[in-house]
Amino acid sequence: MNKQNGTRDIMKSEVRDGMRIFWDAPIEMDDGLVLRADIFMPVPEGRYPVIMTYGPYGKGLAFQEGYAPMWKRIETAYPEITKGSSNK
């Protein structure tokens, strides 16, 4: 239950591209503020390392689209990073 407005949070999830994805998962802070995150997890149960990005803008925006100049610099300087990757 959302303490701020009394509504029930319904989290959407799906399995896509070999991952279980939870969209707009509520994360309640100590002061009651609720932040939202998209969480991408392997489908099989288990313990896995976390890869996390954060920032105030573009939660649903792919890095290579939202930050194209930086992406091009990374690709040029470190081509091995994107080699063979689907970027999903």
Give a brief outline of the structure:
With 88 residues, the protein is an alpha+beta fold. It is built from 2 helices and 3 strands; from the N terminus they run E-E-E-H-H. It has a 3-stranded antiparallel beta sheet, with no helix packed on it.
Would you mind describing this structure in some detail?
There is one protein chain. By secondary structure, this protein is α+β, with helices and mostly antiparallel strands. Helices cover 16% and strands 27% of the residues. It has a three-stranded antiparallel sheet with strand order 1-2-3, with no helix packed on it. A hairpin with a 5-residue loop joins strand 2 and strand 3. The longest helix has 10 residues, at 68-77. The mean pLDDT is 84.
Tell me roughly what share of residues is in helical segments. 10-25%
- Strand coverage percent: 25-35%
Count of extended strands: 3
Give the low-pLDDT segments: none
Helix tally? 2
Identify the strand order in the major beta sheet.
Answer: 1-2-3
* Gyration radius from CA atoms, angstroms: 16 Å
Global geometry: globular
Arithmetic mean of pLDDT: 84
Cα-to-Cα separation, first versus last residue: 32 Å
Helix vs. strand class: alpha+beta
Q: H/E element string?
A: EEEHH
- What profile does the largest beta sheet have? 3 strands, antiparallel
